[in-house]
Amino acid sequence: MKVLFVSSEAQPFMASGGLADVAGALSAALRKRLIGCRVVMPMYDTIAQEWKDKMTFLTSISVPVAWRRQYCGVFQAKHNGVIYYFIDNQYYFKRDSIYGHYDDAERFTFFSRAVLEILPHINFKPDIIHCNDWQSALTPVFYKTMYCQDPWYAGIKTVFTIHNIQYQGTYGMDLIGDVVGLKGEDSSLLEYDGDANFMKGAIECADMITTVSPSYAQEIMDPWYSHGLDPILRDRQWKLTGILNGIDVDSNNPATDPNLAEHYDTAHVFEGKAANKKVLQENMGLPQRPDVPIVGLVTRLVSHKGLDLIKGVFDEFLSTTDVQVVVLGSGDWQYENYFRELSDRYPDKVAVRIGFVPALAKKIYAGADLFLMPSKSEPCGLSQMVALRYGTVPIVRETGGLRDSITDSGDGQGNGFTFKTYNAHDMLDALRRGVGAYYDRDYWKTLVVRAMECDFSWGKSANEYIKLYKQLLKG
Asked: What secondary structure does DSSP assign to 112-160, as a single string?
């Protein structure tokens, strides 16, 4: 079986978020399972020179973009046993950032079309083309409307994964003809609610739609979560499924992580976490107290991460609880200012670092005891899985991938603490239960080891995708 994974970013070449992690890790996991998976992505100017030096030029062609044609170079590199193709066009991709440009619609229309155009020239015909998010959403549309009748392309199946339904690629209707190049009845594939909607087109045209967790697959058929796409998703739910993402267990390994003060595994977790807690408190300017539980928060400081719940009850929590809180993140100024002010009011209890420092994030995972994720919505979430890997017990709201990966330990079997409704005092109750469990030392030791033993490796996810691919090809 041959799979082409289409992504606007991929580790280790270019990353702005979780999509890059998925593209890099899932492709490698599929490759290890003897699936011929290759990845295609844009050739951004900001890719590090050390990676560019390892690339080989394959060919160049011209790609139609509606009524015009554009140069397309194809480069190749190999990483973790996976072949990566890079679509080169300096007019579209020689920018100082990968997203947020006035012509993003045209840039990623070109990319989506180029994915199909290059295949005969690189002599690679995949059985499955697996596209991700709105930046490659037009590939299934182009395949269905322009390529599937061509004998060379016949028989290819397309999969489209929604990583975050909030970002749909919505533009003015004039783009359908002038940029995408669809005409007549085909134009209706993108038309939605008075706009051209790239993601809607992929939902219409792909053979299978996936999301990054089973719960999120159900949630996006609800208007509360869908950002307007719930009607079409309910109509197409027969081809919608959810597969939980995994994490890279090699780079997220407390036994080898170079960022930690002391390495540890399940046999030495409490000595290791004690050493890392001491260093974390020292680095963040908190009192050196080995007996106090630390609650970690590593997040983007934006509203859908549940930060309004924190604002609602954290004064009550901090004034009545012997605890320390460490926060790392950046985002909306109102939340950045809130956490700065919170640290000023509780200097012995709250330490805040605005920004994102990967090495510090690892130190928090290792040095904290509890990890808070009160998200309003969370398609999958990776932080809770990383926290488990480091023996830090998650406190989460039951939504999306958080619900699929964390179960409440109140039954003696779970791996964290959960709350269901989006309510500040329900979150506060879960926090207090977590802190209370910390002081029940026998119970806590069992819970921490159980957390570390959870398996959220990419292997499990890859096996689910292989089942999906095989099902498609049989059909």
From this structure: HHHHHHTHHHHT---SEEEEETGGGTHHHHHIIIIITTSTTTTT-EEEE
Q: Per-residue pLDDT for 16 more than 90?
A: no
Other beta carbons less than 10 A from residue 45's beta carbon: 13
What's the half-sphere exposure (Cβ side, CA atoms, 13 Å) at 311?
15
Q: How, if at all, do strands 191-192 and 195-197 pair?
A: antiparallel
For residues 473 and 426, what is the distance between their CA atoms, to the nearest angstrom? 46
Residue 263: count of CB within 10 angstroms of its CB:
16
DSSP class of residue 393? E
The residue type found at 174 is D
Q: Identify the domain containing residue 58 by its residue range.
A: 2-246+459-474
**Is the pLDDT assigned to residue 410 strictly greater than 90?**
no
Do 191 and 294 belong together in one domain?
no
Q: Are strands 68-79 and 191-192 parallel, antiparallel or unpaired?
A: unpaired
Of all helices (H) and strands (E), which one includes residue 119? helix 119-122
Residues 426 and 308 occupy one common structural domain:
yes
- CA 314 – CA 432 distance, rounded (Å): 11
pLDDT band at 261 (very low <50, low <70, confident <90, very high): very high
Judge if 340 and 434 occupy the same domain.
yes
- Binning pLDDT at 50, 70 and 90, where does residue 106 land? very high
pLDDT confidence of residue 118: 98
193 occurs within a structural domain: yes
Q: Please check whether residues 270 and 129 belong to one and the same domain.
A: no
Q: pTM here?
A: 0.92
Clarify whether residues 278 and 330 are in a common domain: yes
- Please tell me the total count of domains within the chain: 2
Average pLDDT over residues 103-107: 98
Judge whether residue 33 has pLDDT over 90: yes
Give the separation between CA 85 and CA 74, rounded to whole angstroms.
7
**Tell me: the pLDDT tens digits for 208-236?**
999 999 999 999 999 999 999 999 999 99
Record the tokens describing residue 31, joined without a space.
Answer: 């490759």
Looking at residue 356, what is its pLDDT? 87
Token pair 């990353």: residue? 15
Give yes or no for a cis peptide into 12 (omega within 30° of 0): yes
Residues 72 and 21 in one domain: yes
**Residue 255 in domain:** no
Residues 185 and 296 occupy one common structural domain = no
DSSP string of 156-211?
Answer: -EEEEEES-TT---EE-THHIIIII---GGGGGGTEETTEEEHHHHHHHH-SEEEE
Say if 7 falls within a structural domain.
yes
CATH of the domain at 282: 3.40.50.2000
- Are both 44 and 159 inside the same structural domain? yes
Q: Phi and psi of 33, rounded to 5°? A: -95, 25
Does residue 256 fall inside a structural domain? Answer: no
